[in-house]
Amino acid sequence: MKYSLYVTGKCNDTRNFQSNIGIGGVILNNNGNEVSFSKKVGRGTCTEAHIYGLVHGISEILKYSDAEKIDVYVSNMNIVNYFKGNDIEINSRTEILLSNFMNLIKTLRLDINFDYLEVNEYNYVRNLAEEALIQ
Predict the structure, then answer these.
(1) Distance between CA 22 and CA 134 in Å, rounded?
(2) What is the pLDDT of residues 38-52, one digit of tens each?
(3) Residue 14: what pLDDT?
(4) What pairs with residue 116 in β-bridges?
(5) Where residue 98 falls among pLDDT bands split at 50, 70, 90?
(6) pTM score, two decimals?
(7) What DSSP letter does each residue of the chain carry, written as one string?
């Protein structure tokens, strides 16, 4: 089965290297079934929030044993560029997270494609991440 994952991350203070972060996302399968998630995940950067959102969303999809393909839409262009093989500038901690996530994806043997999500076009996803920060 094909799934689509729409995910974003939010942080309380974009100028602070460590602030409270939350994730939000929506999972859709090709039958039109929808599952949403919203969760406060601790402290980190906005980019790290997006990575945690991706990990959470893909983990949720893997609970269904019928996943064959996942189209991932994430509202962080750096992450999209990373998974498309482009050079990006990120701190070493974030690079470790992305590298570990990339290695996990390779072990899954699923067709996973990354694309950019303009979060303002899908306000529901942004609102889920914002709600996580006030929980």
Answers:
(1) 9
(2) 999 999 888 999 999
(3) 61
(4) 74
(5) very high
(6) 0.89
(7) -EEEEEEEEEES-TTSSSEEEEEEEEEEETT--EEEEEEEEEEE-HHHHHHHHHHHHHHHHHTSTT--EEEEEES-HHHHHHHTT------HHHHHHHHHHHHHHHHHT-EEEEEE--GGG-HHHHHHHHHHHT-
